[in-house]
Design a protein that fits this description.
It is built from 15 helices and 11 strands. By secondary structure, it is of the alpha+beta class. Among the domains are: 232 residues, Chemotaxis protein chec, CATH 3.40.1550.10; 53 residues, Roll (Surface presentation of antigens (SPOA)), CATH 2.30.330.10. Strands 1, 2, 3, 4, 5, 6 and 7 form a 7-stranded antiparallel beta sheet that branches. A 4-stranded antiparallel beta sheet has the order 8-9-10-11. A hairpin with a 2-residue loop joins strand 10 and strand 11. The longest helix is centred in the N-terminal third of the chain and has 26 residues.
Length: 418
């Protein structure tokens, strides 16, 4: 029984209306944690910044947009990625720094079209190292904890793709074009750095949306989206305003009111009901009128009025095709001079090889790239990218040249094209 006892501090927290959030849990908002450290004043001072409805709207926006971002990241990493459970709270950067004193990868993205402001995504450095390792061809089980410039570039590209998909989702939700600028990626230790981002001050209220991110057994952590309050409210207005726009839709209802047009329809049935089999020919002469009058008879339950749409006396002839001319086309060389001065690009290919991105990134000064041709083997001569001949490399007056040794036959050129 003693193992289930709680401390006096936890009892006080329960009596004050606060829970006992687990460390690092997404249910532990930065504002509440920091507020308890300040005697409870910090959490209460932001109660009026966002209403419960606005928080719910932001949570739904984050849930949908991060869902598409998870799909994009899954394709890039080759592993299943799940980003769920958004939690929205209001805090300050100083509160977040106090609550998360650890290295974070800060990805700052600016909106260029559709939204006025910036967006910050914070990912723990150890999670970013796993993402970088997967992006560079590793398995993510033993990542390099020291994020070099190459690793930062790899993570930046993945974040660029993620935020691009987020912008696409926002465009769909807000019914307007949303575009972003390339992300700025910085590795910042929240426990020691004074300034995290330029978009807000240390004590300015910000909207923090935390998500749980899981990557196929490699990552089970928390990421944060940080928005200035003005940007968050603009998003809420966009989605709530978009939701209220469909209400004017009933306005088109007056369109049926001008339905006096169907009134002439009753006049149309008499001509249609009166025709006898002998008068079957007149309907084709007024095909358009019969087509307009067809819907009313359908409402009356008559099956016969459909007959005026069927033309039974239209002559039908078998289709005829022009016979193909199998004789060879005579080529006139008289006008070949018109294109003799057209410039063509001649390329001499020494050889080719294939390498992975990881191998390319490991190239340094002095590295040797092995090609698929033997020493002394003839090189390929291409014209506008098409194989034409083979030759050998020569030196003429300190310049490289190529001596043509064999012109390809049409059959060889066709084989090269395949």
């Amino acid at each position: 029984m003693s193992d289930d006892m709680i401390s006096q501090e936890e009892i006080d927290a329960l009596l004050n209306g606060g829970g006992i959030p687990a460390a690092g849990s997404s249910d532990d908002p930065a504002g509440d944690s920091a507020g308890s450290a300040d005697g409870g004043s910090s959490s209460s001072q932001f109660e009026d910044v966002l209403s419960d409805m606005e928080k719910d709207a932001l949570g739904e926006i984050g849930n949908i947009s991060m869902g598409s971002a998870a799909t994009t990241l899954s394709v890039l990493l080759g592993h299943k990625v799940s980003i769920t459970t958004p939690t929205v709270s209001v805090a300050t950067m100083s509160m977040i720094k106090e609550h998360y004193p650890m290295p974070y990868l800060i990805v700052e993205v600016g909106y260029t079209i559709g939204i006025d402001g910036n967006n910050v995504l914070a990912i723990q450095a150890q999670d970013a190292a796993i993402i970088a390792d997967l992006m560079m061809g590793g398995d993510g089980t033993n990542p390099d904890t020291d994020l070099s410039e190459i690793h930062m570039s790899a993570v930046g590209e993945s974040m660029n793709q993620m935020m691009g998909s987020v912008a696409t989702s926002l465009s769909t939700m807000f019914n307007k074009k949303i575009d972003i600028s390339p992300p700025k990626v910085n590795l910042i230790d929240l426990g020691s750095e004074d300034k995290v981002t330029e978009i807000v001050g240390q004590d300015d209220p910000i909207v923090r949306t935390s998500f749980r991110m899981e990557v196929d057994g490699l990552i089970d952590s928390e990421i944060m989206q940080i928005l200035p309050v003005s940007v968050a409210k603009e998003m809420v207005e966009a989605i709530l305003g978009g939701g209220s726009e469909p209400e004017p839709a009933p306005a088109p209802a007056p369109a049926p009111s001008p339905s006096p047009s169907p009134a002439p329809a009753p006049a149309a049935p008499p001509p249609m009901a009166s025709p006898t089999p002998a008068m079957a020919t007149p309907p084709p002469m007024a095909a358009s009128g019969a087509a307009m009058a067809a819907p009313p008879p359908m409402m009356g339950g008559y099956g016969m009025p459909m007959q005026p749409h069927v033309a039974t006396n239209v002559p039908v002839q078998p289709v005829q095709f022009t016979p193909l001319n199998m004789t060879p086309v005579q080529v006139n060389d008289a006008n070949i001079g018109l294109i003799l001065d057209v410039p063509l690009q001649v390329t001499v290919e020494l050889g080719r090889t294939k390498k992975s991105i990881k191998e390319i990134l490991e190239l340094t000064n002095g590295s040797i790239v092995e090609l698929d041709k033997l020493a002394g083997e003839a090189v390929d001569i291409q014209v506008n990218g098409k194989f034409l001949a083979k030759g050998e490399v020569v030196v003429i007056d300190e310049n490289f040249g190529v001596r043509i040794t064999d012109i390809a036959t049409p059959a060889e050129r066709a084989a090269k094209l395949q």
